Amino acid sequence: MQVPVRLNVATGDFEDHFEALLAAKREVSADVDAVVRDIIDQVRRSGDEALVALTNRFDGLALTPETLRVGTDEIEAAYRATARPTLEALELAYRRITSHHERQRPSDDRYTDAIGVELGSRWTAVESVGLYVPGGAASYPSSVLMNAVPAKVAGVERIAMVVPAQKGELNPLVLAAARIAGVDEIYRVGGAQAIAALAYGTATIRPVAKIVGPGNAYVAAAKRRVFGTVGIDMIAGPSEVLVIADGGNDPDWIAADLLAQAEHDAAAQSILITDDAAFADAVEQAVERQLTRLSRRATAEASWRDFGAVIVVGDLAQSAALADRIAAEHLELAVEDPEALFAGIRNAGAVFLGRHTPEVIGDYVGGSNHVLPTARSARFSSGLSVLDFVKRTSILKLGPEQLRALGPAAIELARVEGLDAHGRSVAIRLNL
Amino acid sequence: MQVPVRLNVATGDFEDHFEALLAAKREVSADVDAVVRDIIDQVRRSGDEALVALTNRFDGLALTPETLRVGTDEIEAAYRATARPTLEALELAYRRITSHHERQRPSDDRYTDAIGVELGSRWTAVESVGLYVPGGAASYPSSVLMNAVPAKVAGVERIAMVVPAQKGELNPLVLAAARIAGVDEIYRVGGAQAIAALAYGTATIRPVAKIVGPGNAYVAAAKRRVFGTVGIDMIAGPSEVLVIADGGNDPDWIAADLLAQAEHDAAAQSILITDDAAFADAVEQAVERQLTRLSRRATAEASWRDFGAVIVVGDLAQSAALADRIAAEHLELAVEDPEALFAGIRNAGAVFLGRHTPEVIGDYVGGSNHVLPTARSARFSSGLSVLDFVKRTSILKLGPEQLRALGPAAIELARVEGLDAHGRSVAIRLNL
């Protein structure tokens, strides 16, 4: 294999190389928009009939509207068939994710200001949510928990999950995780047709108000297209980790963390920043050694070769500014004083502090959410949370006295904005 | 003029008519995507050169890169030329919006759980924000305050405003409002070219991390297109109000409120729900009377005729479920006990309680934000707030003991998900 790109802040061309690293496009977005539009139109027009026909064609099934929904017995059977240690791990994850997300519930605010105007914000749950779960190898039970739990904690009353059953197969662990998380309905459909059904509804699947969960290019394009009719979460790109590590680490530990990210996807990205060039060498050698033992070697190797990077800085203090520009989905601070370094960094989806917090803990059982902003979007967005499943109504309440106090200023602003009827709506109440 | 559609819940075909009202498409989205893509490509490729050329062509100007930015002297002159009552109204609005939004700053959270794992959420401001302000008649100083103040309160360090100067003219009140709100930079550019400059940067305009503010179809398409490279706010549709009013109101007051919304745009929508058919008649007559006096009569008349609706219910309690389905941007509760009615309603961007709180107060000086979810999106989204200008980093910190406690569950989940390297990254630290 080839070693990944090595950058050193001390070299004159560092800025050019770093800019190129930031600008590298890791994902080729297939142009599936025309196909997706057609699929959505069909489901919108013909409901279950189109949904069933498309599902049977794409997934090699022979469903009817009656068999779209996964029965309670099938879900129970999957749960009961799950090995005890797996179930215990899922339940531990569920409990920890729930506890953490319960702290994210926003508080209502209601107050009266100095002149007697009542103001406030009231939060309410989104009524219903659709949860997309990919089929095949990317059908992860942990992602079911990560998407469903914040919705449940927010108070969403109905969670409808869709998951394609390619050739009839559903991952029983996904069903078990859905049962643990309290998902209300599960349908064996996927792709753009499933997104269309959730957005517009069919006779079998009632429409939802918001759709979350990862998917392939068709699913992503369908989500973009139905956005507005329903809410959507972020469109996730390939996963990434930035590890900032000093020479005090075991190179094998850091190599393992870089590879955990790389094994996700050939387009995943693992970046190491260190102030110790010899340590960087040792990590690269450890990566090469460990790679040979991985079941997903080809994927991890391609990711590390094509998108991996090792950046050597003169001083770890220099790494903060680079981290902010990278704005990584996952940021590991495997350094002597991680809190001090973290205080100087602003852009990261999630941070993992110290040598004993591998990012993988956050993927499963830490309690925080593993749905995080990718592709530098941590500069302006956040990981999935309870806030994604609630919305705020702002409150205003005036009496006659408050209207007399504020009305003239509103009338003046309406006047200069040329909005007569705005002014009149206040003036008429003040006999002006 | 034609009266608007009248619905009565007591009639057998109510549900069909109500569904049709909800489904009515008020906006024809022009297909400007190809043009916008080309404009963005030009600015991305040629920076200031393209930005200046496009601006000069579209806005009839003769700018150079040196004159793109509005000078401090020009801003000061606009501020000084603003009439005292206008300035006082803007400053009152500014103070009230600031006070209200200061209550929206989210709190960091950091805690240690029962087994010693440290978790948390840390909020930081988005570094830089672009604020789009339309030119011409829709160039509202109030919107400058509503977009800029939450960003300032959030701690955004740099706000770059763009506003097209068609034929060289800038609304001096927009400059004055920008000065009051503390906008850092103003550029006389608009359209898709301005959005491209903010997203990708040029020699004159440094790129921002997020773009907010309303605009025409070109601006909206450009925002959708640069989304991902930068964050964007919601794409605003035509404005709307739902007024729920009992027979105890002055019909003229309610008519004025319906018209204040209708004058915005021929695609705006004003809906009245009442339990009093005679009152409904009186409001409709008042609308007709008041219409004749409005400077924006044609717009208001078209909106009321094409999209206005009056719904008569048997009992006001029935209005809550209808309000939730309408999910209005603005909801006025002009009833005897507005708090009781509000308690039963879930979906609304902003609520205005009681007979003395016309929605217009919220447009200008109430203190809450007037950028609110339109087109039924209050089912899943919220008005603009400080939360739109901050982002959250989730925090996880384990020591060796916590890793021993949680590690085996993470390894088990990695195993069942087929992610070897994930498992290894934990196991290697536990000598497993």
Automatic annotation (TrEMBL), chains A, B:
Its EC number is 1.1.1.23. Pathway: Amino-acid biosynthesis; L-histidine biosynthesis; L-histidine from 5-phospho-alpha-D-ribose 1-diphosphate: step 9/9. The keyword Glycoprotein does not apply. Its cofactor is Zn(2+). Transmembrane segments: none annotated. The keyword Zinc applies. Keywords: Amino-acid biosynthesis, Histidine biosynthesis, Metal-binding, NAD, Oxidoreductase, Zinc. GO terms for molecular function: histidinol dehydrogenase activity; NAD binding; zinc ion binding. It catalyses: L-histidinol + 2 NAD(+) + H2O = L-histidine + 2 NADH + 3 H(+). One of its GO terms (cellular component) is cytosol. Coiled coil: none annotated. One of its GO terms (biological process) is L-histidine biosynthetic process. PROSITE patterns: HISOL_DEHYDROGENASE. Substrate binds at S239, Q261, H264, H330, D363, E417, H422. NCBIfam families: hisD (TIGR00069). Belongs to the histidinol dehydrogenase family. This is Histidinol dehydrogenase. It comes from Aureimonas glaciei.
